[in-house]
Amino acid sequence: MVKSRFKEGEALFEQLLEKAEELDDRALEISARLRYGQFLYHLSRFDEASTMLAKAAADAEQEGDDDGLARALEFQGHIARGQGSLTAALVHYKQSLELDRRLCHRNGICATLGDMGNLARMQFRYADARELLLESLELAREEGDDWLTVKALVNLTTVTMAEGKLAEAKLGFEQAIPLCKKIGDWAGMARSLGNLANVHVAQDNPTEAERCYRRAMEIYEFLGSRQFVGLNSCNLAYLLGDTGRPREARKLFSRALTIARQLGDQEGVTAALHGQATTAYLAGDYHRALEPLGECIAISTAIGQTEFLGNHCVLQSRIYFALGDYDQADSCADLALETYNGIDIDWRIASTLCDKARISTRSGAISNAVDLLLKALAKCPPLKGKYFVEMLLTAGKIFIVAHRQADSAVMFYALRNYVRQKGNAWPLCYQTELEEGINDLSTLAPGVRDEAKSRGESLSPEELTDYALKALKELKAELDIEEPGQPDVSVQSTSANDSSSGIG
After folding, report:
1. Helices vs strands, H then E, count in the chain
2. SS3 content of the chain, % helix, strand, coil (to 5)
3. CA dihedral (442, 443, 446, 450) positive or negative
4. What are the residue ranges of helices labelled H in 291-404?
5. pLDDT score for 489
6. How far apart are CA 246 and CA 248, in angstroms?
């Protein structure tokens, strides 16, 4: 039914173009090409849309139609952004904004400011994003444009989420969904549902996250927005992979990759390939997991996907660690740190420092491992979620190597209790590592082990974090390691022999 309506729409646009050419009506032809290009863009047919809009832009410029040129440039920006070319997108948006300001076209100014704000968020320029989006929101309210008002509010909430203010972002998206429904903005509703799902993932609520992703995908399927079907397929696949459903995850990643390659969506290609690599890694198929990452790194480097590039390097590091190649694992982690330092994502930096601490522990460089983990905890304390488990698992491993088995026992029993409370919401590798850690405590006296188990299972996540910090600092003092002040996360070699990533 929906596909037939799209075919019908395409036929009507073709007829309109033929009529405009027959009448030699340049204004009608430009208008028809603009709307046809926008129609093709919303169907994620980017190459066809780009050709149509480029012709509309050239004709509009020749005819002195600045309004038509501005709209063509705006949608050329959308296409460039959809294909991962953020620099090209910004050039188009700036040209469109300049024309709209010259024409005093307030709705156009408002829309393009919103687009530029969203682009700034994607480039991690959150202060710039907020400034642009607030200007867009003010204009939208002055114009009484409900669509642009809601769009600006959703974009601002997305910035809030990116800044880590999850409770505030959750409330914002929950408020946006009925507003979008009220004005018939189905794309805005789907986007809000997808972002709300991301918040649920960050808050360890996989059931609600899955529900929101699936509802967003249904709406995007209805709208014919294949790029966003692929994006949400990837996000849902990561969630299913993390919650013990690898077969479903593989199918969704494969679907997302097919869509992205068909659309020429390079960002989508890297997301799907990284997901396939992650699924293979979690299944213990390490050599297969390495295969897609070369293409991922090449694409992310070419189109300037800074965070994605870091994530690919982190996954490479973890795979090499699992293969026992600690020098290569450390080298990849260094590359990830160098990338993350450039965009200052604290929790990514902290997680990578934690990985390097684990490498140092396995390599026998225990002093270095303690130093790295303390830096990681200072950079970004573990609150809840996978990052929390990774941090404190590493602390437990350090305590075993340092012959502080009682502290290890508290860590492992507390974390096992925490993971069990989450049911199936954790990858098998975490549960396996916990059980291995507990088995390592076999030499501990039964009374000491029972006391540690009782204490560990009574600690809240916050109390467990405090316990780990205190024990690490005591160990640091014993090893006569100088206490760090402000954490220095500059790239430097940390492996035992001093050799010089989901999507995460």
Report:
1. 25, 0
2. 80, 0, 20
3. negative
4. 293-303, 306-322, 326-343, 346-363, 366-379, 386-401
5. 37
6. 5
Measured CA to CA in angstroms, residue 302 lies from 275, 309, 331, 395 at distances of 19, 10, 21, 37
Q: 């290890």: which residue's tokens?
A: 408
Question: Three-state SS string across 181-198, please?
Answer: HHHCCHHHHHHHHHHHHH
For residue 442, the model assigns a pLDDT of 75
Token output for 471? 């024990």
Owner of token pair 């396995």? 362
At which residue do the structure tokens 């609600």 appear? 208
Spatial separation of the C-alpha atoms in residues 268 and 257, rounded to whole Å? 7
1 CB-contact burial (10 Å; exposed 0-12 / middle 13-18 / buried 19+)? exposed
Residue the block writes with tokens 């905890």 = 377
Q: Is 442 exposed, middle or buried (0-12, 13-18, 19+ CB in 10 A)?
A: exposed
Q: What are phi and psi of 203, to 5 degrees?
A: -100, 15
pLDDT tens across 132-171, in order? 999 999 998 998 888 888 888 888 999 998 887 889 999 9
Alpha-carbon distance 113 to 94, whole Å?
9
Please check whether residue 37 is in contact with residue 52, taking contact to mean a CB–CB distance below 8 angstroms. yes
| Residue partners of 12: CB distance under 8 A and separation at least 6 | none
Cα–Cα nearest to 418, from 166, 204, 244: 204
What is the CA 378 to chain-centroid distance, rounded?
23
Structure tokens, 3: 């596909």
Eight-state DSSP code of residue 24? T
Q: What CA–CA distance (Å, rounded) separates 166 from 157?
A: 10
* Residue 301 one-letter amino acid: T
Residue with tokens 């809000």, as numbered in its chain: 192
If we measure between CA atoms, which residue out of 47, 95, 22 comes closest to residue 266?
47
Between CA 111 and CA 139 the distance in angstroms is: 9
What distance in Å separates the CA atoms of residue 56 and residue 50, rounded to the nearest whole number? Answer: 10
Whether 341 and 349 have beta carbons less than 8 Å apart is answered as yes
Rounded Cα distance, 180 and 191, in Å: 10
pLDDT at res. 2: 47
The residue ranges of the chain whose pLDDT is under 70 are 1-6, 44, 83-84, 343-344, 382-385, 422-429, 480-504
Q: Which of 109, 94, 201, 198 is nearest to 154 (CA)?
A: 198
Residue among 398, 396, 377, 394 at smallest CA distance from 462: 377
What is the Cα–Cα distance from 42 to 498, expressed in whole angstroms? 52
pLDDT of residue 423: 60
Task: Tell me the C-alpha to C-alpha distance, in Å, between residue 309 and each of 300, 336, 342, 398.
Answer: 6, 7, 12, 29
Tell me the pLDDT tens digit for each residue of 348-374: 888 999 999 999 998 889 999 999 999
